[in-house]
Amino acid sequence: MKSYREIAGDAGSDVLGQVGAQQERLRARMAKIRLKVAVVSGKGGVGKSAVVANLAAAFAKRGLKVGALDADINGPSLAKMLGVRGQRLAFTAGGAQLPQGPLGIRVLSMDLLLPDDETPVLWSGPAEGEAYFWRGAMEVTTLREFLADTEWGELDLLLLDLPPGTDRIPNLLPLLPELHGVVIVTLPSQVSQLIVTKSVTVAKEIVKAPILGLVENMASHLCARCGAEAPLFAGEDSARMAQRLGIPFLGRVPFDPLLARYADEGTPVVLSSPGSPAARALWQIADKIGESLHLPAEPVEAKESR
Amino acid sequence: MKFLCVPCDEPMKIQETKGPDEGSLSVIFNCPTCTRQVALLTNPMETQIVRSLDVKIGGPQATYGPMAFVRSALVAQRADAPSADQPASTGSACPFTAIANAAFEGQGAADGAIWTEAAAERLNKIPGFARSWAQKGIEQYAREKGLPKITEEVMEEARERFGM
Lengths: 306, 164
Description:
Chain A is α/β, with parallel strands linked by helices.
């Protein structure tokens, strides 16, 4: 009797062919985007989305064509932070047409498909009671469709805001094997650093993704009265942590109420208050990432107009 | 998954797929040599896993426009997201989705459908974010079946039809 491996094909479904066609569609779409960079953290609540929104704005300000993809399917926040919440996607034969945020940043988030504030992402299907089992596959398929079915156009840079979890980079790489860089965000707390260290291990040792560096967010608190700077957390110095892990350290972003305020307003702080402490730190981080990616230097006049 | 006709030692081929119906796909295989047939009947979890991968049993079908998977799989989405003149608005391969999407878009939903008191009470127990969508889907189901009144039994039939 023939064994499984002796039988060619799969009786007519050609599942491998279907998956190959999906991959080809994705590859063709991504070929128009020069650089793809993911922003990750094993830990939730460290400010990944705020970092993504501001990096996107900083690079757009440098004159680059930038896209921002909110890959946090269940906790989308990028549409809000980039001021496109409430706008709609348009669907044409060429793909989903995106709303544009500040400086023409093309933004895609699950938030643009949800009807209202209260509605979570719920999937219909014949086995809803066992959603824990298949939800991950739905999310990866959704991300693949977000990447492949969107009219991103010719972009210099696509930033991906990944949800928390050490498994996110391994899930992303089959979709984007040509990923050009990973930015890792942590808080200077022991709890955050403990988990983020695992993310670094996964990215560096297991999937061998190119790590652009570590960002320390909410690094310190500035007293509104006297301007004195004080640490918010008592973890390891993140620069030392980066050195210990053998990855570049990109910089520290202080806790700055302006950053949160402008995130709520959908106007990134690097544009709205470029001289604020958080904005200055984010500009420097963007400069370092730009150097690593060999992006053209920012024109002097643009730098002066920050 | 492959099927082998043991007497002929020949791999069987897909002849036909049906469904999903009540969460189950029916896939009929036959042996090209002796024409013996077997049917594979999936349970809802198996159907769901296939759907989650966005592949079609029986071979690729016509594409249905951008983000067809996401738009057909979300329980609730923006009413204005897919519009009638755009591709993929109701183009899912899943018949439930097509009905539900059409209902969601207000295409063919029953006007002035009569709900019994018990059915209306049950409808009100559905969370707000999904109620309108469910109501339109059930009304569409009732209209297709030619049912003059929506009762709890009709709701249950619709629920089973949708695999929910």
